[in-house]
Amino acid sequence: MISAPLSALPSTIMTENDYLLAWGAYAFAALGCLLVWCLMTGWMWRWLREPLRLLVLVLLCTPTVVDPGKDAFAPAIAIAAMDLLLDVGNNAWRAVADLATYGMIAFVLYLLFALLRWLVERSLKRRRQPSGAAKATAGEATLRQIMAQGETRIDAQGERRLRSEPRL
């Protein structure tokens, strides 16, 4: 049996290109997962849909340090899952702390954005409503008022109808 020298064996150390390629593949997959999640939550109420999308974004895009001696990062959710399920390291608490920190920062920024958007929408809604003078000039009763009074109309055949045709 011929044995190869140790220098001829393939190295298991990840090079810089391998590292960037792995992050690129992960980013592409995370973007696909986020797109699927956006499609799945599209039917929801906006104030529930947006925080859920933000939660998934934080879970997918939060990095954590793998080895403090190197500048090597990995997705925090993957590190936490591997450390907890496979019991391979002790980086789970660091990954969970990173997830909590980035999640808290993201949700505080989202709450500030949502508050600002709510104030702007309320201001625009108030501006679009007709003024009191415009309401006073329209002296005709609305269909809701007619139906509340029980007022009926008599058509051309002499029959009583509780129907009001809209004006064009």
Brief digest:
With 168 residues, the protein is mainly alpha-helical.
3D architecture notes:
The protein has 168 residues and is mainly alpha-helical. The chain has a domain at 15-128. 61% of the residues lie in helices and 8% in strands. The chain contains six helices and four strands, in the order ααββααααββ. It has helices at residues 16-40, 46-61, 76-86, 92-128, 132-137, 143-149; strands at residues 63-67, 72-75, 153-154, 160-161. The strands form two sheets. It has a two-stranded antiparallel ribbon with strand order 1-2. The protein has a two-stranded antiparallel sheet with strand order 3-4. The chain starts with 15 loop residues before the first helix and ends in a 7-residue tail after the last strand.
Topology of this structure?
Layout: H1 16-40, H2 46-61, E1 63-67, E2 72-75, H3 76-86, H4 92-128, H5 132-137, H6 143-149, E3 153-154, E4 160-161
Antiparallel strand pairs: 1-2, 3-4
Low-confidence stretches: none
Strand order of the largest sheet: 1-2
Helix count equals 6
Overall form: elongated
Mean pLDDT: 82
Share of residues in helices: 55-70%
Rg of Cα set? 31 Å
Number of beta-strand segments: 4
What percentage of amino acids are in beta strands? Answer: 5-15%
Features:
two-stranded antiparallel ribbon, 168 residues, elongated, mainly alpha
